[in-house]
Design brief:
Largest sheet: 9 strands, mixed
CATH superfamily of the largest domain: Dihydrodipicolinate Reductase, domain 2
Number of domains: 3
Distance between the termini: 30 Å
Bound molecules: nicotinamide-adenine-dinucleotide
CATH architecture of the largest domain: 2-Layer Sandwich
CATH topology of the largest domain: Dihydrodipicolinate Reductase, domain 2
Shape: globular
Radius of gyration: 23 Å
Structural class: alpha/beta
């Protein structure tokens, strides 16, 4: 056997014996799957649903939940019942890791706490599966990069937006060379009022806690473009404004529940009529003062509703991007203009339709070749069918082939937030901002 084959075979065999939660499945002697030990940090709505109840419902054959951690003891109590697990709960992350020894942490805290949990977890020997955004500023991103280097632990960022089947198809078509080299990308994302209101009511309205929607929300979009282009952002120029919410409101109350303006406020919402939100948040406010139904017109809101950016990529492509929150439309439109043609998709919200379409128009407009339509069926499940596919790869079979590189790494997490952080800086300074120099990661022309 030659040396290369020997190394390949022995490392596969070693992998099966000493499986790491991020890279492989392990079997015990009786051939049964050895469950991997995970702990959930952050038992808010995302934590208890997708990475709590749904995870245990669909993947308990592969996964053992060994602990739940949150800074709010009331939310923890609710989470344990809602998820239906009998593991211990902790308000101290350190204590949980010491006692329960999870192999990996699932991080679903609010954005501004991600870095603390990720770094502490890695230093105490855990791998990390973290929700987006990786973190909210470049200094915290650097701390995470340093910790990864120091500890050798692995991080997966759960970019579920890479997984819907028609986005995979789009990636496949681009990769196949159908549209040639991409010159420009037009990408416009709209969030409707009820969606934007949910951000304005919560910690997302405070830039120190969510990094503004340039980071909290656009991290998904910049990641998609980085992934589609297989390149990284070089420079960003941006505008942003807050015109409707925050200090622009003509009246304001303490919070929605006890506001004297409910009759005239288009955003009035009674949290006590929403049993899930009441149990998770309102009933547990006494522990930490987390208010879920803050006034959307509070003076402290310092994020934007309108976001427009131009992003130059290392491979020469230019992205024209917007995130608009001041229309009552939910959906997006994306087009790639390449040397051989244009690929375009327009998607409305989370539609009732069973399929989505993409149009390819060849570059030569005198040719009698008609635009070609690609139709892709939606898969069942959250975020246009992307969530279950991502969960299968992480929790069911981490060795599953990943030819389109849908599983996002730490580098992907950093590059996607840096585009948003640079946009935020550009809004403040009125000048273009380079990605190089924000962290020690130097952007690359081609990622893979
Ligand atoms: N990928 C997606 O499509 C998607 C969708 C929704 C939310 N998310 C992400 O999931 C995360 C959670 O969002 P959410 O809507 O559930 O928020 P949430 O406010 O409902 O929950 C956050 C929880 O974190 C807890 N927390 C705060 N600091 C903590 C700390 N230091 N240690 C432990 N717990 C702490 C809070 O008490 C709260 O229970 C966010 O990062 C968000 O961006 C991703």
């Amino acid at each position: 056997m030659d040396r290369r084959k020997f190394l390949t075979r022995t490392s596969v065999a070693a992998g099966a014996l000493f499986a790491n939660p991020m890279t492989g499945l392990a079997s015990n002697i009786s051939g049964k799957i050895k469950k991997r030990k995970f702990a959930l940090v952050g038992t808010g709505i995302r934590g208890v649903t997708m990475f709590g109840r749904d995870l245990m419902k669909e993947y308990s054959q592969y996964v053992e939940m060994v602990g739940l951690c949150d800074t709010n003891p009331g939310r923890l109590k609710f989470a344990k019942e809602f998820i239906g697990v009998d593991c211990p709960v902790f308000t101290s992350l350190e204590e949980m890791i010491k006692k329960q020894k999870p192999e990996a942490l699932i991080v679903t805290t609010e954005d501004s706490a991600h870095h603390e949990v990720i770094i502490k977890g890695m230093e105490m020997g855990c791998d990390i599966i973290t929700e987006k955004p990786l973190t909210i500023d470049e200094d915290k991103a650097q701390l995470i990069l340093d910790a990864e280097k120091r500890t050798g632990r692995k991080i997966i960022v759960t970019f579920n937006y890479r997984y819907p089947p028609y986005r995979a198809k789009m990636k496949e078509l681009i990769k196949s060379g159908l549209i040639g080299d991409i010159n420009t990308v037009d990408f416009h994302w709209n969030i409707d009022h009820s969606h934007l209101t949910r951000y304005m009511q919560r910690w997302h309205g405070d830039s120190k806690r969510g990094g503004t929607l340039w980071v909290h929300k656009s991290t998904h979009h910049f990641d998609m473009v980085n992934w589609f282009l297989d390149s990284e952002p070089k420079e960003v120029f941006a505008y942003g404004s807050l015109d409707r919410f925050g200090k622009n409101g003509k009246f304001r109350g303490e919070n929605c529940r006890n506001c004297q303006h409910t009759a005239k406020c288009p955003y009035y919402w009674d949290i006590n009529k929403d049993s899930m939100s009441k149990s998770l948040y309102a009933d547990n406010e006494k522990y930490d003062g987390y208010v879920r139904d803050n006034c959307v017109f509070r003076n402290e809101i310092d994020i934007f509703e309108k976001h427009s950016a131009v992003v130059k990529y290392m491979n020469g492509a230019v992205l024209n991007y917007s995130l608009t929150g001041d229309t009552d439309f939910e959906g997006y439109w994306i087009a790639f203009n390449g040397t051989k043609g244009r690929l375009e998709a327009r998607i409305e919200g989370y539609p009732e339709k069973t399929f989505a379409e993409m149009t390819f128009t060849p570059i030569d407009r005198y040719s009698d070749e008609k635009p070609k339509i690609f139709r892709v069926d939606y898969a069942r499940g959250g975020h246009w069918g992307g969530d279950p596919l991502m969960m299968d790869k992480i929790f069911k079979d981490p060795t599953m082939p990943d030819p389109l590189r849908q599983q996002a790494t730490l580098r992907d997490g950093v590059m996607s937030i840096l585009a948003g952080i640079a946009a935020r800086m550009s809004v403040d300074s009125g000048k273009p901002v380079e990605i190089k120099g924000l962290t020690t990661l130097v952007p690359q022309n081609v990622i893979s």
